From TrEMBL:
GO terms for molecular function: DNA (cytosine-5-)-methyltransferase activity; DNA binding. Its EC number is 2.1.1.37. This is DNA (cytosine-5-)-methyltransferase. Keywords: Methyltransferase, Restriction system, S-adenosyl-L-methionine, Transferase.
Length: 388
């Protein structure tokens, strides 16, 4: 299945899509350092990455008429306009690239698409814009007029009797619910060409905190796997009642357990100065920034506009002390393989990793979408645009 990856960053989502069976025919990223990271790993022959046609490219300059017919377009438009931090300018921010994502769908006409962004996009401040994005993706050929506001365009889209070109659904997800060792809440937007004859559906979680609690505090299997004695002190107060409820059920949850920091870093050992596994000094705790316990998924890695925030991106060790995650450890939390290297500084590398979609979430979402589309009309039966 041929795909295009937009706003590719250091490759988290792209790697997930590759693992789900998509072959990237086109990739675009505007950030020079992120592109250099991908090209470094391409030259090293890292699996999947070695085949990526990565290039430094502004999506606004892409002529979709010269790109081969695609099964899928995926990507994460810059989230800074909609993040919790920053100026929160949304669609008025010059970095807002959602119109370009919509243009890509309008002109390339892929069978399906997958876009992701921060969960704040679904919050009260930006919900109207999310509604406009979804409506525009359903009817991408119905362009917004030059003098038309997003609200007026949404109203016109909502009452249009023209056929919907894509069937679209969005949902809030936590990456930990799909196998990532990181609590990362995102908005996913799925779309399938209406001619395929299948409606997209929301993903079903494959992992859960309940199953982790079961393995930790009902059976103790988690501690045995790590060669540790059960650590009741790791049980948070709010989870005690849930553990009691799980014991009464006497049946393990059907999902897999959340992957913890300890799980993700197993076998890596303490920093040794090799392959991005280098100790970074200066970690400290302050209110609201207390690091990630080893026996839960990590808190969301942060990028930061001016480097890594002082109290974030660090682990709380068994003795209660804290230290920053090394680049190698952070890469594991994002689901990147150990041979995937970051040639830039720790601060720059952590910025890229803080912006990355966990590859496990990308693989789950890509596989989910592909399985849905496979139930509809086969690609050869859907009218296609001839590549230039």
């Amino acid at each position: 299945m041929l795909s295009a990856e937009l706003f590719a960053g250091c490759g988290g989502l792209a790697l997930g899509m590759s693992r789900a069976g998509f072959k990237h025919a086109y990739m675009a990223e505007f950030d020079h350092d992120a592109v250099e990271t991908v090209l470094h790993n391409k030259s090293k022959g890292v699996e999947h990455v070695c085949d990526w046609p990565m290039g430094l490219k502004d999506v606004r300059e892409i002529d979709w008429k010269n790109i081969s017919t695609l099964d899928l377009i995926s990507g994460g438009p810059p989230c800074q306009p909609f993040g919790i931090g920053g100026k929160k300018l949304g669609q008025d921010d010059h970095r807002d690239m959602w119109p370009e994502a919509i243009r890509a769908i309008r002109e390339a006409k892929p069978r399906m698409f997958l876009f992701e962004n921060v969960r704040n996009l679904a919050g009260p401040r930006f919900q109207p814009y999310l509604n406009w994005i979804v409506a525009s993706l359903e009817r991408p050929s119905m362009l917004r007029r030059l003098d038309e506001s997003h609200e007026a365009h949404l109203a016109r889209l909502s009452v249009s009797r023209s056929k919907r070109e894509y069937r679209v659904v969005w949902q809030l997800v936590n990456a930990a619910d799909y196998g990532a060792a990181q609590i990362r809440h995102r908005v996913l937007i799925f779309g399938i060409n209406a001619e395929v004859g299948v409606a997209p559906a929301r993903m079903i979680p494959t992992h859960s905190r309940d199953r982790l609690l079961w393995d930790q505090f009902v059976t103790g299997e988690y501690w045995a796997r790590h060669g540790l004695k059960p650590r009741r002190e790791a049980l948070l107060a709010q989870d005690r009642r849930r553990v009691a409820e799980l014991r009464k059920l006497d049946v393990a949850p059907a999902t897999q357990p959340w992957l913890t920091v300890r799980d993700a870093l197993r076998g890596l050992g303490e920093p040794n100065g090799k392959r991005n596994h280098v100790l970074q000094p200066g970690a400290r705790v302050y209110p609201g920034h207390t690091g990630s316990p080893l026996d839960l998924p990590s808190k969301a890695l942060k990028a930061g506009d001016h480097g890594v925030p002082g109290g974030e991106n660090m682990m709380v060790r068994d003795d209660g002390t804290v230290r920053y995650f090394t680049t190698r450890e952070a890469a594991r939390l994002v689901g990147l393989p150990d041979d995937y290297e970051f040639p830039r500084s720790w601060t720059e590398s952590m910025r890229q990793l803080g912006n990355a979609v966990p590859a496990q979430l990308g693989a789950a979402a890509g596989g989910w979408l592909a399985s849905l589309a496979a139930k509809g009309v086969q690609p050869s039966l859907v009218p296609k645009r001839r590549a230039a």
